[in-house]
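Human:
I keep going back and forth on a fold encoding question. Comparing notes only helps if you start from a blank page. Show me how you would write down a chain together with its backbone fold. Write it directly below this note and I will take it from there.

Assistant:
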Amino acid sequence: MYISINNKLFLKEEANISVADLSIQRGYGIFDFIKTINNKPIFIQDYFNRFYHSAKEMNLEVELDRTQLHEAILKLIEKNNIPNSGIKMILTGGFSDDGYTMVKPNLIIIQTPLNIIESETSKALALVSYNHQRQIPQVKTIDYLQAIRLQKFVSESDADDLLYHNNETVRECPRANFFIITGNEIITAKHEILKGITRSKILGLDIPNYTFVERDFTLDEVYHAKEAFISSSTKNAFPVNKVDGKLIGDQKNSITKLINHKLLALIELDQNS
């Protein structure tokens, strides 16, 4: 297994960065995550858009341009030969002498095997809500402090993951966007969230008799929704059947399954392009 650090390949066992890096000293850095199917990165330019935007917002300079970054990823894919995988690009604050001042960033690219979901699933998630607003939500930072700290809380709540809200206004999950389906609307939060790439693809779908809406909504609306689902690179559109112990809808998830079916077709189209 190889890892790329500043566009040089290292065996996983030899891939190291200094403890002086601001990612270690202060938790300062960004990342993004791209999945590959049969060695093809999916929606890569969309992820590059977000990665470079996050870097700009955090005043971090990406030494590689888009073409060079794409080449670095393809080089890693060829070297590791893991057809279905997750590619994580991490950009850190760099090796800081005083542990506070930003210097030249370090770019780390890691590839790991990924179990690709290529069809509809009969499974569904249970979420537990938690009052928390992420810092700089429009940026994909490496700060997952709350999500990791609350793993015990999630387990004790007999849930699979968290659903963040800000004083009853629903935001997102730690690693996914969140949708509810009402009478004829498919609703997702608009403000103070990370706007996911899978989310954006879903918003562009044509679902007969339904309109996509980006707006604030409450936990009470979630409890009374017809369906709910999350969206992410790894889970696509994945049903949520329970929030805070309350069952959502009739558990059939028929609209969610249709959305996922159309999303999978879009992924396949990109894969074969």
Summary: Residues 2-113 form a domain with the D-amino Acid Aminotransferase; Chain A, domain 1 fold (CATH 3.30.470.10). The two ends are 28 Å apart (CA to CA). DSSP finds eight helices and 15 strands in the chain. The mean pLDDT is 96.
